[in-house]
Amino acid sequence: MDIDQERLRSLKGLKWSKYGPEVIPAWVADMDFLPCSEVISAIQEMVDLGDFGYRYHDIDQLIPVWCDWIESSHGWRPPSDECQVFTSSMHALEAVMVLHSEPGDGVVLFSPIYMPFRTAIEQAGRRVVDVELQGPDWKFNPETFKAALDSTTRVVLFCQPHNPTGHVYTQEELTVFAEIVVEYDLVVISDEIWADLVFDGNRHLPLSPSHEGLLERTVTIGSASKAFNLAGARSCVAHIGSPATRSELQKYPDHYFGLPSSFGSAATVAAWTQGKPWLRRVKEQIEHNRNYVHSRIDEHSSGLTMHLPEATYLAWLDFSETNLSDNPSKQLLHKAKIALEPGDKFGKQCGSFARLNFATSIDIVETIIERILGTVNR
Ligand SMILES: Cc1ncc(COP(=O)(O)O)c(C=O)c1O
């Protein structure tokens, strides 16, 4: 897919505006591709008409369109009368987590993990129950999970496919996970916003229907923000499988949780109804990039390693056997002018890691890899 570098440099989004012109940004999880043309047209139509008033046309469609999307893409139809819209994935996650726990209660996360999960727990005065995943494949370990639980643990924050490792959970892993969740009477908030970016014939299995004990204790979060590069749309749909949570949510007045905007909703509805061909092309490009990054790192023998992600556009790079083992992202920013996400943001055991976003043109990916490999050695 074509990328206009001049356009990228003039964007006001975080990714390209944070660092100076000499730095190539590969940090925050935005893609560099031009969004799907149908999404642009949907917004353009509103702009051309000046249709900026109370416009619920697309907001009202978010839930049915998401249910159709999940069914056609992942083989499960969430009951639409059990779904609710939120303004973002983190909004849904925090609202449900707070409704389901009291200050001091334990909330599980599996680290390394997308950093706002941890701050969400801490800022809400809940206790972080950090279940560390282990490389190189970052699979779920039932023994460590069980050992971390006690009678004050209420909620599990689950992320699948997993950011930052790109792990896609198998049915076997989900079954073992579900049995523990049921045994300890936990509620799971399953953030599945990376579900549409899965590679190699792997399948994303929605958590909620993967085990009968989970249907009524899982909240599934969906959004077009990652697969369609619409993080600014601020729009999200969640299936609230737990009846207790649904009735908690209903106790609040109409405007308490807010609504996505008509612009974000129009973009999201266009993506989920017309975006499949665009998404197919994007997936081909990022799978190609992923294979390139992996093979270049593999053949370089510099001590740098990377587990092949099964999903996402993120490479979780291990610099522990290299000259950059101490805060690699900081060193690479200074020495190679490449901006990566620091590993310790995702987990305290990951200070020698960094996260690389490869959702860009192959030319830019090549430059990034050249600069990294030119700086790293054993
Ligand atoms: C796993 C995960 N959840 C949530 C988010 C944030 O989503 P939103 O902007 O919809 O809150 C991200 C962003 O990268 C993410 O990777």
List the topology elements.
Blueprint: H1 5-10, H2 14-17, E1 24-25, H3 37-49, H4 62-74, E2 83-86, H5 89-99, E3 106-111, H6 116-123, E4 127-132, H7 142-148, E5 153-159, H8 171-183, E6 187-191, E7 218-222, E8 236-240, H9 243-250, H10 262-274, H11 276-300, E9 305-306, E10 314-318, H12 328-335, E11 338-339, E12 341-342, E13 353-357, H13 362-373
Parallel strand pairs: 1-11, 3-4, 3-5, 5-6, 6-7
Antiparallel strand pairs: 2-8, 7-8, 9-10, 10-13, 12-13
Helix pairs in contact: 3-10, 4-10, 11-13
The structure holds pyridoxal-5'-phosphate.
Pyridoxal-5'-phosphate (PLP) binds at residues 29, 88-90, 114, 159, 163, 191, 193, 223, 225, 231, 236.
How would you sum up this structure, described in words?
This protein is an alpha/beta fold and 378 residues long. The protein folds into two domains: 5-30 and 277-373, Alpha-Beta Complex (Aspartate Aminotransferase, domain 1); 59-274, Aspartate Aminotransferase, domain 2 (3-Layer(aba) Sandwich). The protein contains 13 helices and 13 strands. The protein has helices at 5-10, 14-17, 37-49, 62-74, 89-99, 116-123, 142-148, 171-183, 243-250, 262-274, 276-300, 328-335, 362-373; strands at 24-25, 83-86, 106-111, 127-132, 153-159, 187-191, 218-222, 236-240, 305-306, 314-318, 338-339, 341-342, 353-357. The strands form three sheets. The protein has a seven-stranded mixed beta sheet, sandwiched between helices. Strands 9-10-13-12 form a four-stranded antiparallel beta sheet, covered by helices on one side. Strands 1-11 form a two-stranded parallel ribbon. Strand 3 (106-111), helix 6 and strand 4 form a beta-alpha-beta unit. Helix 3 (37-49) runs antiparallel to helix 10 and helix 4 packs parallel to helix 10 (262-274). It is globular, with a radius of gyration of 21 Å. The model has no long low-confidence stretch (mean pLDDT 97). Pyridoxal-5'-phosphate (PLP) binds next to helix 5.
